[in-house]
Sequence to fold (334 residues):
Amino acid sequence: MDHRLYFVIGDLLANILVGLFVGWITWLLVSPGWNMWLAMVVMMVLGMVLAGLLFLPLGVFLGAMEVMIPTMLGGMLSGMVIGMWCAMAPLSGPAATALGGACGLLAIVAVWIANHSLRGSRSVLEGQSHGG
Amino acid sequence: MADESTRRKWDRAAKTFDLMAGRGAELRWKPFKEQLFAAMEGKILFLALGTGLDIQAFPPGRDITAIDISPNMLAQAQPRIAAYPGSIDARVMDVHHLEFADNSFDQIYTSCTFCSVPDPIAGLKSLRRVLKPGGQLAMFEHTGSRYYPFRPMMHFMTLLSERFGPAMNRDTVANVMAAGFQVKEVNNLFLDVVKTIKAVKP
Fold:
């Protein structure tokens, strides 16, 4: 993770915001009549797409990849979890929105942890087997 | 002959390019770029200059030849070129068809470039041709990831992003090796996506 306070707070807020929004949209769209698996897949994809759109204004202030990747992960997670939940049982709007925010928070923490283990120099041999 | 569709794409992007790439991204990565560019010495080729955002990270007093495929991008870069305390010779040129003699440069630098070059291995081979034997290629690039769930996400994003800008899923380290360079160092800056790559021409 970037240890500068501007980016720590910015990344945190951006991801929570995207999670909240995707959670709320999912709650608006999915009702207990939906098939659980369909709700999960559709809202996972929609969550990722919505996050990809929301990233555009956030990226102006916080950078590109470092915002796009965690927000898309948070959008996916938020859409998937809340989509499944709303398809299985009634969930209030505030609860769905808050749960979305928690998914966004979880996503940025997961990316910080992944980043901590992946950052730094890699050997050339490892580079040869790289996907990137 | 230059790749006209790529030129048009970046000409269209020139006016709004700094809006997306200028503020947050440069604030985030300027210290890392300064560190990479600090080693600039000798005859230097910089690819692709774009609107000149990277110039602020160049060490002062260097003599740099810079190219970009887009005339509109270079037009936007003019104030930054003029303000640089050194020399920048900026030219419109396609990396696939470099108009330099073999073994012309001591070092070549790229910054977020090979996400956008249509044929990256051919482009890198072209760079190898103009780099002197033993010369260094230093790259600041974003690439695809080898890890789930980032890898499929980057593939998905590329379906959209490639239409108006860069690809998100390039395997640039492998491309550098496929072009005949010896990779000396890969330094991941964000996940295994944003990284610096240092390679030499054998």
Observations:
- The longest helix of chain A spans residues 36-62.
- Helices of chain A lie at 5-29, 36-62, 65-88, 93-118, 124-128.
- Chain A touches chain B at residues 2, 6-7, 48, 52, 56, 59-69, 72-73, 76, 111, 114-115, 118-122, 124, 126-132 (CB under 8 Å).
- The beta strands of chain A are 120-122.
